[in-house]
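ok so I'm stuck.
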Amino acid sequence: MLCPDCKCPAPGGSPCPSCGRQVPERESFGGQGRHYLGVLFLFSLVLVLFFILVTSLGHGLGATLSKLARTGWFWLFLALFLLPNLVGLYYWSMLREEEITVTDEYIARRSHWGDEFLLWADVQAFRRKPVLFRQTRLGRIAWLSRVLTKGKLIADLLPVSYELVSRPDANGVSSVMCLEPGTIDDLPWLLQLIEERLGPPSEG
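replied:
not stuck anymore, here's the structure
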């Protein structure tokens, strides 16, 4: 494991040899469904407020809202607000079960697409592979993982997937745990923990 403060490697549960802080025995990472829901809610709110302000120029906000309530335009504004939020709720429901757990012995994943478990001793390859956002399981919406994240308007997250490949089983089949962009929260820290066990990823 790694010390969260000084990034010094040490066994989980032991004191960090550099700063003395106890190193976590496990680290857990959730999905980004809540992030997508928050970004889309903010987008829909800004969009509706923008249209209301534009249409109320010269008429007053109260008169504009009253007019919207009496006409069909009200339903347009309601749709502008609801549609992005419905999309956000869909991706929140898809990613709310997403969780990756890392310990000194294993990495495990609980997911909408199925549960996965790999012992570090069984991992024979760690690969880094460029991928387009539209090619991920989330599709193009995965790009939103870069928006308004960790205090930045646009985060420097490249569309790259990472694969952990296990040794072949008795039938000669290897299992692959794929970490896609836009799915996991705090992916950079997760990658540091993986690299502490496996070294840097190979290309391809």
